[in-house]
Amino acid sequence: MPKNTKRITKRQRDVLDDLFTGRDNEQQVLEKHKISQRAYDKWLADGKFAAEFERRLQNARRQGELLLARYSALAAAKLIELTQSQTQETARKACLDIITLLRPDSAKSDIDTPQKNENTSSELPPDLASRLLSALAAGPPNDGQMHQPAQ
Fold it and tell me: Which of 15, 52, 62, 77 is deepest in the core (most CB within 10 A)?
C-alpha cells in the first residue's frame, strides 16, 4: 500500500487527540507517547498525518473564532462600561481599545506593513482621537449635547 494512501495509525490519532484536547504542550505529548522528535517530524511530512493535523488546527481556530464572536458584544459592553471608571488610566485605556476596535479592518492590517496605502491610515488624526476620547470619557449625553469630560 503506498505511504500516502493509508490512514493515520491509532498511535498518531492518540497523539493528535492529546495535542488538540489536552493541556500538555507539544513536547510533553511526545514524551508521554514516547515519540522521538525525528519520528514526529516524519509524521508531519506524511501527507495523511499532515492533512489530519491541518484539519484539526483549522477546527480549533474556527472554535476560537466562534467563541470570540459569541462574547464580542459582552466585551464591547464591558469596554464601554470601563470608560466611566473612576481610575483615569483605566478609562483612557478602554477608550483607546474602543478606538482601535472602530478602525476598519484594512487599517488594522496595515499597522505592521511597511508600505501603507495613502488613503488608509492606521492612525486616527490627533484631533479626531482627542474628540473621540473626550466623548467616550464623558459618557452618553442625556440632553443630546456633547459634554466635556470631568476633570
Answer: 15
